[in-house]
């Protein structure tokens, strides 16, 4: 692993606090959307290799062998190089998708098209509130690609095509959204490639120096 | 005499941000703890007449600290400083005996306003 991408303890703590504030924002949006209380959890942050990604994600989502659906959206800075960029994933297990439909009082048949709409709505809401709040705190304006559905009712291994991931090591931020009195949960992952980690570390150092 | 002030937050950055937000000239004797278990121990030891308390923490979270403070009858004045901006989070901590709620990242002016509002400065 490239040592330059490893965060110091101060940088990791700083990023974790920034992500905490962002999670608070997205939990508030989710709570308003679903009219429920959302539990905030502490995010996990570490550098992972391409080869270990699907195992890492499966263990976090907690459904090895279970069917999941996922949405992905990229974020980046316009006209900045090297920039802060990366990809965000939202992953639901099938059970949580049905629970979500129930919370939104959807009464019709849960076709793939309906589920896709539910997925996209929640992914949009969580990704844009969370990632933009991270950007704000590090004084970085971020733009987003259109979200895409990675797959519905498939194994987590099949959500990612390792060959298409354009990096070897990446910073992984894992966030879990759980609700009170509901078995619903969904997982959000942020992945940032090496070049972005270096830029991010610089931004974190600026914040740390200002303390 | 200095007021024993406890800052309880698992993040080193958040603890520094809170410390920096403390109004100039406010005569406090600061103790810092990194989770709720250490926080409640500091309160038992008389180091938390005033407490700035985070909610999302390992070991024992802020809700747990508020419950213990209430159960053990400590007279600590507790202001919750959290990223959890759901209105219900605020209602819950107030019901558990917190004096007020200030959202993260902390704004020194907001903290001063809250302290002034309750005549604590």
Molecular structure report:
The complex is a heterodimer of chains A (211) and B (121). The relative contact order of chain A is 0.24. The longest helix of chain A is centred in the first third of the chain and has 26 residues. Chain A is of the alpha+beta class and 211 residues long. In chain A, strands 1, 2, 3, 4, 5, 6, 7 and 8 form an eight-stranded antiparallel sheet that branches. In chain A, β7 and β8 form a beta hairpin. The mean pLDDT of chain A is 91. Chain A has one domain: Chemotaxis protein chec (3-Layer(aba) Sandwich), CATH 3.40.1550.10. In chain A, α1 packs across α4 and α1 packs across α5. Chain A contains five helices and eight strands; from the N terminus they run αββαββααββββα. The two termini of chain A are 30 Å apart. Chain B is an alpha/beta fold and 121 residues long. Chain B has one domain: Response regulator (Rossmann fold), CATH 3.40.50. Chain B has five helices and five strands; from the N terminus they run βαβαβαβαβα. In chain B, strands 2-1-3-4-5 form a five-stranded parallel sheet, sandwiched between helices. In chain B, α2 packs parallel to α3. In chain B, 41% of the residues are buried. The mean pLDDT of chain B is 97.
């Amino acid at each position: 692993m490239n040592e330059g991408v490893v965060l110091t303890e101060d940088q990791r703590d700083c990023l974790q606090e920034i992500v905490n504030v962002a999670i608070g924002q997205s939990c508030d949006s989710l709570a308003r959307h679903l009219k429920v209380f959302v539990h905030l959890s502490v995010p996990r942050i570490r550098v992972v290799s391409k080869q270990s990604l699907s195992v890492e994600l499966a263990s976090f989502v907690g459904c090895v062998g279970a069917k999941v659906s996922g949405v992905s959206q990229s974020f980046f800075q316009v006209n900045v190089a090297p920039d802060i960029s990366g990809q965000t994933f939202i992953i639901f297990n099938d059970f949580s998708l049905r629970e979500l439909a129930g919370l939104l009082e959807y009464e019709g048949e849960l076709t793939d098209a309906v589920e896709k709409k539910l997925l996209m709505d929640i992914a949009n809401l969580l990704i844009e509130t969370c990632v933009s709040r991270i950007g704000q705190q590090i004084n970085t304006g971020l733009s987003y690609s259109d979200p895409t559905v990675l797959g519905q009712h498939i194994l987590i291994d099949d959500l990612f095509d390792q060959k298409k991931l354009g990096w070897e090591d990446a910073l992984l931020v894992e966030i879990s959204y759980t609700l009170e009195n509901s078995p619903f949960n969904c997982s959000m992952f942020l992945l940032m490639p090496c070049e972005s980690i270096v830029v991010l570390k610089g931004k974190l150092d600026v914040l740390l120096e200002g303390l | 005499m200095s007021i024993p002030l406890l800052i309880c937050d698992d993040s080193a950055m958040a603890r520094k941000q809170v410390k920096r937000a403390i109004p100039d000239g406010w005569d406090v004797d600061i103790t810092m703890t990194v989770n709720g278990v250490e926080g409640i121990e500091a309160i038992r030891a008389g180091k938390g007449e005033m407490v700035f308390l985070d909610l999302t923490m390992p070991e024992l979270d802020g809700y747990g600290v508020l419950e213990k403070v209430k159960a053990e009858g400590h007279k600590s004045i507790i202001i919750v400083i959290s990223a959890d901006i759901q209105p219900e989070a605020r209602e819950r901590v107030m019901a558990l005996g917190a004096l007020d709620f200030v959202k993260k990242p902390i704004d020194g002016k907001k903290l001063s306003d809250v302290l002034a509002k309750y005549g604590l400065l």
